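Quarterly update from the structural biology core.
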Amino acid sequence: MVDEIDAYNERRLAERKRNIVLAAIGVCVVILIGTLLVGKFLSDTQALGEMANQPPPEAPEDVVIEALPPLERRALEVQSDPPGAAIILNGIATRLDTPATVQVVANKRNTLVFMKEGYETTVATIDSDAQDASVKLTPFVVPDLPKEERNEDSEEEVEPYHGRIRVISRNPGGVFDGAEVLWNGRPQAEQTPMILKVQPQQEQHITVQHVDHLDGVMFVQAIPFKRNPDMRDALVEMQTRRDNAFSALAIRTFPRDARVYLDDEEITGSLITPIAMNRHFILRVEAPGLETYERAFEASVGTIDLSVMLKRTVYPDGSLTVEGAPEDATLYLISRREGDESATEIGRSSAPLRTVESGPYTLRVAAGPHNRRTRQDFDIDVPANRQLDIKLGVRDDELQVLNQTERPHRNR
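Predicted structure, tokenized:
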């Protein structure tokens, strides 16, 4: 009995000692945290005192971009077939129709854009030594509205495949009304906000003018509308008139990852780029597998707003046949042009006559059971306006191209 009491007392004594140790550790931690907090408070108080004694910062100055001297000009005779096309010179509306004499920038490449209702927008690059310019306009073909998009039961009459643009003027203070509008170089009776009915998928040129603001210019394309509410907003930014004004280039590219160059210097397309007034510059936009956009512009307005939609390059047609692959093989054709590496299945064991774009391809032959499928690639070049016949076969226990023959198209 005595032994049990002694053991109990020893356990109680050990627990008491442990609790004393834990309490001491807790007190030390509290003291340490308190010391750190007091030090931080004193440090912050000292820093605030130093900041209060510092002189106030100087007000930031506006960025000043000095305007360049006026551009040197020369006369250029301009014609179109048919006549009566509005002339846009280096991004600026001339208010002239063909035939006309325009004052282009001397010793520089110039860009003329011709716009006429019922015809496609035509762009011409004018060399520095050219004395005249003449273009032939292509009629604009209005496509029929697909049957699945026609509303036969509706009594509402809608002209299919036209576009509508709502023009809105805005300055740093917000949207405002009452600005004058030039559409493709021609003054409009209405003021902003207003709605234009235009040819869809064709480039449109809009100039917005107001007595208290620098002119705003926008190149934009309209989507086709199939219902009256369908339209696209053209929100034209306008700068307030001031002595140290500069031109601002705003550009959106499609695709978004396209590279943008201003006089061969790469810029960020999604940011607004300030440009000195009276500067003549070349804008270039490029992306793999797409046609390059390159035009001359003049910084003579407050804002130049561009929507650049790069087009896919169209190459002349060629044609192709393939025979001699294994019976269980699947044939694929893969373009080797940069930016266009899509694979297209063209046949099983053989490929009948197929029309494709001319150019370099990889002919891929996938054969064998799916769990042990083999793949062999052959580089080929489909000639323009010709037919390429390829014969495959096994040689030295390996599938190879035995023969390639070019001939005129069979259907020509």
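Residues 56-61 have pLDDT under 50 and may be disordered.
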